[in-house]
Amino acid sequence: MTERKPLKIGNLIAKIPVIQGGMGVGVSLSRLAGNVAACGGVGVISTAQIGWREPDFYKNPMEANFRAIGKEIQKAREIAKGAGILAVNIMVATQKYEEYVKKAVEAGIDLIISGAGLPVDLPKYVEGTKTKIAPIVSSLKSLKVICKMWDRRYHRMPDLVVIEGPKAGGHLGFSKEELESFTPQTYDQVICDIIDEVKNYEQKYDCKIPVAVAGGIFDRTDMDHALELGADAVQMATRFVTTEECDASDAFKQAYIDAKKEDICIVKSPVGMPGRAIRNPFVEKTSKEKLPIEHCYHCISVCKPAQIPYCITNALVQAVEGNVDDGLVFCGDNVWRCEKIEKVSDIILELS
User: Which one of 11, 73, 224, 306 is most buried, by most CB atoms within 10 A?
Assistant: First the structure.
């Protein structure tokens, strides 16, 4: 049994080396993140259309989102009561990415985790603050690009590196062909290569850069395997969806519990990346026809409303609110293993 050591990110300490993955829209907000932190882990709020419940979201989505960032971080702090670490996940592909980062920093967030693109200028946006930064990488190449740029431009390194593998949920940093060709063994080697490269930068900067493995982590056995490969922590998301504390609707959680292995599919997202989701009437419909775009919520910088098959903001909001047949239900590869509603504290205890 692999020994559990606290996750240390600079001066921040999580007693349990478990990061709850950021899930948007609205799946991981203050309630889930706050409770994970309260149990000694790293709770993560997703900023993806975080203000969708604000009354002016339809007319002023950006203002609603910026306002909600502060609200959700404050509520999570109250739940955590000083325990664990609180983070936000901000996608690089988000429109006005810099402003999202600065709003989270202003709200006093401990850590920013950032993927869906390369966060090459993230250090500039947090300069002079206490906020820690962590890129999400899927390959050795992406890690090298980020570290070389941060080294050259900002003379600093990540405070944490998250390696997100091909079994992750939602948008994936792989082509469909890569997803089909990976085996557990080949991706284990990728993880080891990334960890070795991180060690090179640790030596150069004389610091510890912890590494977390994400994608396909569901239980203690999965966690043990990641730690045995040399990781300092794991990030898991799917398992936390079917908890009492998850911010998603009961119907969304039930879709996870009802999902079978054969229901998992790879969809082509309007964002331009493949994504893993539960096959449902919405997925079937959008694979055959284009849905009219009635309104743009200015979510992703690469989105071209005239060309996309459907509005991803609307699809994700429908799902999280409980209209699962009319929405996109993102999930991880292990969603079929979800069998019941659990408590965050019980999951953390199992992994401790």
Answer: 73
- Across the strands, what pairs with 214? 164, 235
Q: What is the pLDDT of residues 292-326, one digit of tens each?
A: 888 877 888 777 777 788 989 999 999 999 999 99
- 8 A C-beta contact, residue 64 and residue 57: yes
Q: Is 20 helix (H, G, I), strand (E, B) or coil?
A: strand
Half-sphere exposure for 212 (CA within 13 Å, toward CB): 30
Q: Tens digits of per-residue pLDDT, 43-76? A: 999 999 999 999 999 999 999 999 999 999 999 9
Q: With 80 as the cut, is the pLDDT of residue 1 above it?
A: no
Helix (H) or strand (E) segment spanning residue 66: helix 61-80
Largest CA distance in the chain: 54
How many angstroms separate the CA atoms of 203 and 327, rounded? 47
Choose among 156, 137, 161: nearest CA to 206. Answer: 156
SS3 content of the chain, % helix, strand, coil (to 5): 40, 15, 45
Half-sphere exposure at residue 199, Cβ-oriented, CA atoms within 13 angstroms: 9
How does residue 291 score in pLDDT terms, banded at 50, 70 and 90? confident
